[in-house]
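Bumping with the actual sequence this time:
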Amino acid sequence: MPLAFSTLGCPGDSLAQVIDIARASGATGLEIRVADGEFAHPGMAAAERAAIAAELSAAGLELVTLASYVKVCAPLEKPDGASPAPGAAAAAEGAPAGDGVAPGAHGAGDPVLDELLAAVELAADLSRGNARAAAQVRVFPGAGIDPCKLGQAVSAEFKAADRRGAARLNAAAARARELGVTMLLETHDSHPRASDIERILAHVDADAPVKVIWDLMHPWRHDEAPERTAQLLSDVLAYAQYKDGVRNPGGNTVELTLPGEGELPLVRMRELVAGVSASHGVADPWIALEWERAWHPELPPVAEALESLKAVLSLDA
């Protein structure tokens, strides 16, 4: 299985430095995070985009995913009490797909939809030259609500957030299809489990280019068994992000560790991901390390985490 890593693990590094890390570790793919102060950032000029795509191609690296910070379930903010445009209100308040949301149209009054469409465009531009991987962009649920407890009844607020996220994904689907981009919804924040993501996907159009990244940490720390996560994602899984940690007693927070030094059953999880992928004819899904050094600078360098992950998964065997 090919190895990849997120540039979240090497914040502030240049693309040349990231390429050096990839070569030393044997990684052939990157999740490139889009953030101010990074070599990929919002509002990049066309020449900057082309230069990054060319450097990746020359280095033999795939852009596995453009790691955006779009939060598709976020409520629409209404500045100064102004009312949003009708289409924006439909998307933001969770109206069914097609209720006034203009697919691919900027300026509809919903900044989240505009941000999503911009991320789709950027993913397409930076993926030019990809040989193995199609263009993909990561998005978060980001409803701004604490996750439901496992087995807890879903509130009306959550149901509205689910529809809101789906409406935005549906609204961006036409442009994403046109550019050959798949939008990847990550198991994260307000929707950490596959059962949470499933609720959003229930409202997503069948032909919308939407799949899921299984961040292995979040469903596990919110009490969803890996076998259950794999079952629920069996038709929509793109790939998994690997990390490890030790769960703090009495809650669902986690102290991060090097891969293999924590409590996540990474080998079993890799087997589950491989099984789901094989059922769709994919023999070599990405193994992507998400090392959170940008948020936790006390962590060892990403190169050390990559070596630990390779050891625990026997990737050099």
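The tokens above came from a reply further down the thread. Confidence is low (pLDDT under 50) at residues 81-107.
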